Amino acid sequence: MKSLVLSLMILLPILGFSQIGIGTTTPTATLDVNGDFRIRTTTSNTRETAAKDSIMVVDALGNVQRISAKKVIESHLKTFIKGGFVSGSPATISLSILANSYTTIPFNTIEFDTNSEYNTTTNTFTAKQPGIYSVYVAIKANPGLVAASDFGVAVFKNGVINAKESYINVQLLGININPPNRSIQTLMQLNTGDTISFKGYSGGVITVGILTSGDESYFTIHQVR
User: Where are the transmembrane segments (predicted)?
Assistant: First the structure.
């Protein structure tokens, strides 16, 4: 009897730190199953909020782990963003543009951003997942703008122009012949890490005041597939 107790005392520490392999002779976890896994019965859980706590997932190596259900859902949320200028900003923001050049439009606030993809410091959107995106931007210049050359707005993808709208702002006897608004609606195919930015354009050297009202100067980005 004493020898049996002694043997158990020796084996217990080993069993406590051992790994069990089913279908493998080289287990890498406390229980390593190489093959199908089946649970015949489970205890019913009547607490509906339990699913919000966490769910079990399997990674690429077959490891079973627990993760917040919220994180799983959010990782597959499509992009929906609307941004503009900070409320209480000056009525206009001055944008200085050199001839035949582009200057970043400093949209610095977000109304909503489901995947946290727009950086208000760099004024840049960075895609977190590949897909087709609908992009819209609108700006309104000070109605008193008179430009002897093109003035407009452009959308850049990865630092390269993707779409642009520009034309000359003309007045006749103090009356605007064309509107001071510029806007673009376009579709883009993006990969993870691709960027989008918005810039003002001018064919000549100008300093233009962009109205900061949220219903006149803003942008939207949403993933369509």
Answer: none
120 near 100, Cβ under 8 Å? Answer: no
Residues in CB range of 129: below 8 A, 6 or more apart: 79, 115, 192, 223
Q: Report which of 219, 216, 188, 206 is spatially closest to residue 124, judged by C-alpha positions.
A: 219
Separation of alpha carbons 153 and 103, rounded Å: 9
Say what the pLDDT of residue 87 is.
76
| Residue ranges with strand state E in the chain | 20-22, 31-33, 55-58, 64-67, 80-84, 92-97, 101-104, 109-113, 118-119, 124-126, 131-140, 150-157, 160-168, 171-172, 175-176, 181-190, 195-202, 206-211, 218-223
| Tokens matching residue 33 | 């199953």
* Beta bridge partners of residue 183, listed in sequence order: 138
Q: Which residues contact residue 21 at a Cβ distance below 8 angstroms, ignoring those fewer than 6 apart?
A: 27, 32, 34
Tell me, yes or no, if the pTM score tops 0.85.
no
| Distance in angstroms (rounded) separating the CA atoms of residues 200 and 139 | 9
* d(C-alpha 1, C-alpha 55), whole Å: 47
pLDDT digits (tens, 9 = 90+) for 165-190: 988 766 666 666 677 889 999 999 99
Do residues 221 and 133 lie in contact, with contact meaning Cβ atoms separated by under 8 Å?
yes
Q: Domain 80-223 class?
A: mainly beta
d(CA 199, CA 192): 22
